[in-house]
TrEMBL record:
<dbReference type="GO" id="GO:0005856">
    <property type="term" value="C:cytoskeleton"/>
</dbReference>
<feature type="repeat" description="WD">
    <location>
        <begin position="77"/>
        <end position="111"/>
    </location>
</feature>
<dbReference type="GO" id="GO:0016477">
    <property type="term" value="P:cell migration"/>
</dbReference>
<dbReference type="InterPro" id="IPR015049">
    <property type="entry name" value="Trimer_CC"/>
</dbReference>
<dbReference type="GO" id="GO:0005938">
    <property type="term" value="C:cell cortex"/>
</dbReference>
<dbReference type="GO" id="GO:0007015">
    <property type="term" value="P:actin filament organization"/>
</dbReference>
<dbReference type="InterPro" id="IPR019775">
    <property type="entry name" value="WD40_repeat_CS"/>
</dbReference>
<keyword id="KW-0472">Membrane</keyword>
<dbReference type="InterPro" id="IPR015505">
    <property type="entry name" value="Coronin"/>
</dbReference>
<keyword id="KW-0963">Cytoplasm</keyword>
<comment type="similarity">
    <text>Belongs to the WD repeat coronin family.</text>
</comment>
<dbReference type="InterPro" id="IPR015048">
    <property type="entry name" value="DUF1899"/>
</dbReference>
<dbReference type="GO" id="GO:0051015">
    <property type="term" value="F:actin filament binding"/>
</dbReference>
<comment type="subunit">
    <text>Binds actin.</text>
</comment>
<dbReference type="Pfam" id="PF08954">
    <property type="entry name" value="Trimer_CC"/>
</dbReference>
<keyword id="KW-0677">Repeat</keyword>
<feature type="domain" description="DUF1899">
    <location>
        <begin position="4"/>
        <end position="68"/>
    </location>
</feature>
């Protein structure tokens, strides 16, 4: 009789715990714009949400502890003249946030401690250089005042926020079509992009050269997302030729074949990947889904291991991801998401159970297995009695 061996992992029992009703942010009008960004950005001080706004683009910034019902007249950041598409908090200053908009500009804002008391209309700096809407903004992970933006003009600009000047331009000769995603490597030495021309590129931004690229990482025509993970690997999400959602892991030095390729389901929403380098767990959140899948990445085959899935009843319109600095580690929290509903923002904590809890769970499983075996023996005994009669 073959015995199934379960892979040993510290994170096999990770589970999602949604916040109680009084810890959610109620009555927020989440943006209806059809754009594949998270619509939410979080840091240890504030949560920012892209909202519906008449006469331009706006986003709401709330102090993290200011939960409950949000006043409909709450002050917003409202300097853009068209809808906001993406927002990102600066990793070096928790009061600074960047926003990209359909008005072709990138704006950098400074939020006062304690949050806004009046609408904020004047940015610290306005970065003008794109000719079409700006859908992606991403801060450099290690260098201060360096911001990347990508627009629908197929151009990536890297800005020095201190001077307001573009220090690097990657033009349409690098990306001939719409850019779907951009991600910095952990040390900021490389960027990884996915494009509508069905190619994923690894770019050395200082030289402006493509150091590696992969044509058709996924066979489908829907958007592909790509992020850096550990040990020089990248993870992509996309669609198969039959419109099945896929996740794949690649070695940047050998992009001919994936290290791992898994098919997930047939939903239509684009999967947004969030990678935690400390635990090597990647979380996949689909827009329009009601679940968060998570996988562990290891250095040995098969490299990408499915852990579990957090499910809820309501679908998500967007998702924010808290940096590790803002987690409650004394409660064994390893990640926290901010799930956007139509009129609500709900925190979801990912927690590793303590060893004693796991031990209790395993003991209960053993008892259940013993009960099942006892019932099977009784059933066999009854069948023998019936046959004898």
């Amino acid at each position: 009789m073959s015995r199934q061996v379960v892979r040993s992992s510290k994170f096999r029992h990770v589970f999602g715990q949604p916040a109680k009703a009084d810890q959610c942010y109620e009555d927020v009008r989440v943006s209806q714009t059809t754009w594949d960004s998270g619509f939410c950005a979080v840091n240890p001080k504030f949560v920012a949400l892209i909202c519906e706004a008449s006469g331009g683009g706006a986003f709401l910034v709330l102090s993290l502890g200011k939960t409950g019902r949000v006043d409909k007249n709450a002050p917003m950041v409202c300097g853009h003249t068209a809808p906001v598409l993406d927002i990102a908090w600066c990793p070096h200053n928790d009061n600074v946030i960047a926003s990209g908009s359909e008005d072709c500009t990138v704006m950098v804002w400074e939020i006062p401690d304690g949050g806004l008391t009046l609408p904020l209309r004047e940015p610290v700096v306005t970065l003008e250089g794109h000719t079409k809407r700006v859908g992606i903004v991403a801060w450099h992970p290690t260098a201060q005042n360096v911001l990347l933006s990508a627009g629908c003009d197929n151009v990536i600009l890297v800005w020095d926020v201190g001077t307001g000047a573009a220090v690097l331009t990657l033009g349409s000769d690098v990306h001939p079509d719409t850019i779907y995603s951009v991600d910095w490597s952990r040390d900021g030495a490389l960027i990884c992009t996915s494009c509508r021309d069905k190619r994923v590129r690894i770019i050395e931004p200082r030289k402006g050269t493509v150091v590696a690229e992969k044509d058709r990482p996924h066979e489908g025509t829907r958007p592909v997302r790509a992020v850096f993970v550990s040990d020089g690997k990248i993870l992509t999400t996309g669609f198969s030729r039959m419109s099945e959602r896929q996740v794949a892991l690649w070695d940047t030095k050998h992009l001919e074949e994936p290290l791992s390729l898994q098919e997930l389901d047939t939903s239509s929403g684009v999967l947004l990947p969030f990678f935690d380098p400390d635990t090597n767990i990647v979380y996949l959140c689909g827009k329009g889904d009601s679940s968060i899948r998570y996988f562990e990445i290891t250095s040995e085959a098969p490299y990408l291991h499915y852990l579990s899935m957090f499910s809820s009843k309501e679908s998500q319109r967007g998702m924010g991801y808290m940096p590790k600095r803002g987690l409650e580690v004394n409660k064994c929290e390893i990640a926290r998401f901010y799930k956007l509903h139509e009129r609500r923002c709900e925190p979801i904590a990912m927690t590793v159970p303590r060893k004693d809890a796991i031990h209790r769970l395993e003991e209960e499983m053993k008892k259940l297995q013993a009960t099942v075996q006892e019932l099977q023996k009784r059933l066999e005994s009854l069948e023998e009695t019936v046959q004898a009669k």
